[in-house]
């Protein structure tokens, strides 16, 4: 390890960080160095790891591990103690210099830093905090910093991470306690949740202090997030949705990320032989959106799963799956229905619904008006009533799925 140069370390540790999905940078406070003070900014840019803000901006982050060595032996992790991978380790100052060099070359606008555990949880966490401290205090770095914290570390060290970082995250790893016990026996769900609870309290205390004292120190202004691995254990989509909803409620999380399990070299015999379909990960993100932005209760999203398997359908989105299961809710009159009910119409997003609510104050809307707000009016028609449209035949159809489900064609490998 000592013989590797910084370029070789970067190649190894950037690749090792690709399995962590929770690197979006939305929600941070705006800082800039325009005016000659400091280094970096949280605005704009393209670069190394692409994450996206809610407004669609592309955020570029240097996404690396401090080290891919680890004293833990979690079955699903490619960096586990027993894994036969090439190891590398940065010093804290090497990460600091890399971050500054990449920023000054306009490659990035921030840093996402995680790590395997070396020596002890406290020692590793201290090294992670030192990177952020040096960037902020020694170099006046004003760009975005996201730190992955270690729940087993001393709470005081974890707290210091939040004083320098825009966002902190603690991975719950797996959706169920049984899965965590089986695949990561050295990790404790209780300790993970206790650390998340401490972070939530610190964020709330900071927000309260800011209302009274403008000079109060900040603490993780972009909040905290977590990540769950999908498909490594026997958890169903219903289990995952329920777990995510509980985490949002209890810890005020900014985001829950879902990462489809990926088979790794020299895998343990307790792991699945194949990865889950990536579409499953996508459907879980759509379910997450339904709870966060469309007003669905967790039990309603879970009701869209298959009653036998507990899985969401892969060929249609969860919103459409729910609508097909609860057809008594439809059709919805777009000229009269409340916003909450319009949000349940398949094919209508939040912006489309808001446009409908605004436009109908002035005139009654026709189907053509709705067609201009959605990608597929065919998907919408069976579920709504407009001034010139009433889905009589479609509403009475015994099976709507063939009508509204997107048709896919098998491509020919050697087509001309």
TrEMBL record:
Cofactor(s) required for function per UniProt: [4Fe-4S] cluster
SUPFAM superfamilies referenced in this protein's UniProt entry, alphabetically: Radical SAM enzymes, RuvA domain 2-like
PANTHER family: ENDONUCLEASE/EXONUCLEASE/PHOSPHATASE FAMILY DOMAIN-CONTAINING PROTEIN 1, TYPE II SECRETION SYSTEM PROTEIN K
Keyword field: Iron, Iron-sulfur, Metal-binding, S-adenosyl-L-methionine
InterPro entries reported in the protein's UniProt record: Aldolase_TIM, DNA_rSAM_put, Endo/Exo/Phosphatase_dom_1, rSAM, rSAM_sf, RuvA_2-like
Organism: Sphingomonas immobilis
UniProt superkingdom: Bacteria
Keyword Metal-binding tagged: yes
Protein name: DNA modification/repair radical SAM protein
